[in-house]
Write a structure and sequence with these properties.
7 helices; globular; four-stranded antiparallel sheet; 8 strands; 273 residues; alpha+beta
Length: 273
Amino acid sequence: MMSVDQSVEDAPSSQYYNTGKHMNMNKDILSAPESKLPGRLDSDVSSDEESVGQAEDVDMALSTLPIKPTCHKFPQSLKWKFSGLTLWFELEEFNNDLSKAIHSLAVTHNVEKIPQSHMTAIYGMNHLSKHDAIAKLRQIPSLFPRGWPKFGKPVGVVQDLAVAGRPGQVCSIAWAELTLASNSHHEEALDKIYALFYPEEDMRPERTRPWKPHNSVAYDNPETSALSLEEVIKCVARFPTLLAKERRVQAISLWDTNGTMGEWQCLDRVRFW
């Protein structure tokens, strides 16, 4: 975590907790029944070389978090300009828990709200027109007549930042996420998606294996990020289904993600039910 007057280059990387057997949860913060905070998995925009050591005890970890503002004085819009078309998986929600968490953290930190709860499947597609990409999107349900393979409960709660140009980092952004795990069924299904959108194998981008899916719940600018792992934990505690439920993919949507987040537009969506 970094204070607002630290430079990004000096900032440490991710803050995270895992569910060790001997963890002593801080009851004032983790008041939800059986609130177990799982461990961190790699994010698409973070580098393992930058990660910090694992916290062995939540109370100890919280006591050592630097004191810094967790809310911007003025509303903050995400500055990074993205490129291309992006495919999102939209997970089923339980009493709108994911959407409520995204709204809650945006209000808590005074940051721009993520427009739709999602996990990214493919991003930065510049080889297709919007018309052609929509046509391919509408073929997806026929590839998965029984729906997308279900995801298990989250395995990580992460607050991290990335800076474009660092190893393995393709954009400059701070974020908080729920990390999920993939299995062989997800890997096979994602290969089908890549083959659909990149039919020519020699033009198909190489993807990281295993896939490391994550559902982001907050974004901020890394230079002055106010995102707080403590507030993310409190939010997770307020919505205990975030960690307690397996989830199906209810829809896949295609977004024009050219420009800043405020400029993103949903082009089309296909639903599995």
